[in-house]
Amino acid sequence: MADYEIPGDLRYTREDEWIRIEGDRVTIGITDYAQQQLGDIVFVELPAVGTPVERGEPFGVVESVKAVSDLYAPVSGEVVEANPDLANHPEHINEDCYGDGWMITIQINDPADLETLIDATQYQQHVQDRSSE
After folding, report:
1. Are 60 and 47 in contact (CB under 8 A)?
2. What are the residue ranges spanned by the domains of the chain?
3. CB within 8 Å of 43: residues ≥ 6 apart
4. What is the pLDDT of residues 13-52, one digit of tens each?
5. Which long-range contacts (CB under 8 A, 24 or more apart) does 117-122 make?
6. Which residues contact 130 (CB under 8 A, 6 or more apart)?
7. What is the CA radius of gyration of the chain?
8. Confidence of residue 1 (pLDDT cuts 50, 70, 90)
């Protein structure tokens, strides 16, 4: 099985987004597993600042040489920041998915949404389960 970077200080979704919790805001991107599965990312569509997002609903699109995939909001809230560099440099997601490849920051509506997220150990098991199918 391939090795994937899964930082222990982040939370995750089963749709392969990572979440960095910063008070009542969260920063979101896609995991190392997701970017490796997608391959070279060539385009990212993100919502504008001020856009409301709903937990479990698509908030954007990432396009690679292999596929087009929806991005799903791990929490409900309002977009307060979108990574401006990804429009011209979507490859940042492949190069540094947990750093320069971040996508959006959301002001959370309901902190209870955070309880639906999984930790690094659970996400690693989720990746292993899919890799063995």
Report:
1. yes
2. 11-125
3. 61, 62, 63, 90
4. 999 999 999 999 999 999 999 999 999 999 999 999 999 9
5. 117/11, 117/12, 117/13, 117/19, 117/74, 118/11, 118/12, 118/13, 118/14, 119/8, 119/11, 119/12, 120/6, 120/7, 120/8, 120/9, 120/10, 120/12, 122/12
6. none
7. 14
8. very low
Q: Average model confidence (pLDDT) for the chain? A: 95
Spatial contact of 26 and 74, defined as CB atoms under 8 Å apart: yes
8 A C-beta contact, residue 30 and residue 93 = yes
Q: Read off the DSSP letter of residue 109.
A: S
Q: What confidence score (pLDDT) does residue 2 get? A: 65
pLDDT the model gives residue 129 = 93
Structural class in CATH, domain 11-125:
mainly beta
Tokens matching residue 124: 């690693």
Indicate yes or no: pTM above 0.85.
yes
Q: DSSP assignment of 24-85, as one string?
A: TEEEEEE-HHHHHHH-SEEEEE-PPTT-EE-TTSEEEEEEESS-EEEEE-SS-EEEEEE-GG
| Contact between residue 75 and residue 55 where contact means Cβ atoms under 8 Å apart | yes
